[in-house]
What does this fold into?
Amino acid sequence: MTIFFLDNQKNVLYLVYQIRNTKEFFKMVLNVEKIRAPSSLSERAYEAIKESILKIDMTQMKDEDHIDERGLSESLGISRTPLREAINRLVIEGFLKVLPRKGIYVVKKTKKEIIEILLVRAALEGMAARLATKHVTDEEIQKMKELFSPFCESSSGGQFIKYSDANIVFHELVLRTSQCGKLIELAGNLFDHIRWIRFRTIVFEDRFTKMQKEHLAIIEALEKRDQDLAEKRMRFHIEGLAQYIEEKVSFP
It folds into this structure.
């Protein structure tokens, strides 16, 4: 079960969820203020809820977790109308699910869905890499190199989380460099899903060296302004991750 409640004295929104069939509870804290501006109630509710969802550890989710709509409304200090607008957006984006007469649930991604997300992402980012070769600057190339320079190819050194952060920044930078607004818009939601599941894919030590080499190879293609090579290497990189998950990773 997932529960939201507000500490009014500290203006802190707590998200508490229980591992199903156990007595263990996990609590995450978001430093958020009660929503006040009428013109942005729905938007701010959407952002607060989404950020809370993205902080849930999917390894602890056995099934979809239920959300108490009334409690959430009280926690955010808003009425049901803007809250439901925010919830509807999250349903469309695939983070929540509304079941008639049952309630609102946080959606757990299946292995099949994760692979599908990666395959779509490969197509989008492959095109982004192709377009980026036309616009990328020497300064942006240098920034990409600096993202991965702290990491040694031969050893992960237990730096999985930092490498994961660098990985996200790199892929977002390639997207922005494409200067294709519609492509960036389409990929934006996929990135949020990747943020949610990245710990399931980035922490496999046997892939660390391979991923590092692939990132550097993509940067090399961008630096050469080689459209075909940049697209090919980006697609190979992401499709390889999808294949790895399909063959070697199991999800509860």
